[in-house]
Structure formats: structure tokens, C-alpha cells
Amino acid sequence: MAGRSDSKTVREILCDALAGASAGKSSLRFLDSFRGAIAATFVCPLDVIKTRLQVHGLPEMPPSS
């Protein structure tokens, strides 16, 4: 392509990264850290609940009348 430089726009970099193509390392690092923060937000509280259930077990419920 004549007249086009090798630099990509932000949109092209994000599309390539989301598609699994190789993009610049700095953009992938940013996306990886963003995905890690999102995952930790949901996984960490669930992991705490799981650990407490493993240590203490389920609470005993009084018999229903």
C-alpha cells in the first residue's frame, strides 16, 4: 500500500489483540493487566468463600417444625 505507514491505529491494535494476533508488546501488557484486574475482582471473593466453607463447613440449620 503506497503512502501508508507501518504504524497502526489504536483501534487496529485492539482488534488485533482481541483476535489473538500479535500486536505491540505494550498494548498487550495493558490488555493483560486490565483482564487480570477484572478476573481478580470476581474470582478473589469467590475464593475466600470457598476457603471459609472448606475450613468451617456449612452452618448447621435448626430443624424445621
Automatic annotation (TrEMBL):
GO cellular component, one term: membrane
Name of the protein in its database record: ADP,ATP carrier protein
Gene3D superfamilies to which the protein is assigned, alphabetical: Mitochondrial carrier domain
Location of this chain's protein in the cell: Membrane
Domain of life the protein comes from: Eukaryota
Membrane topology summary: Multi-pass membrane protein
Keywords for this protein: Membrane, Transmembrane
Organism from which the protein derives: Musa balbisiana (Banana)
Keyword Oxidoreductase attached: no
UniProt key word Lyase: no
Main location: membrane
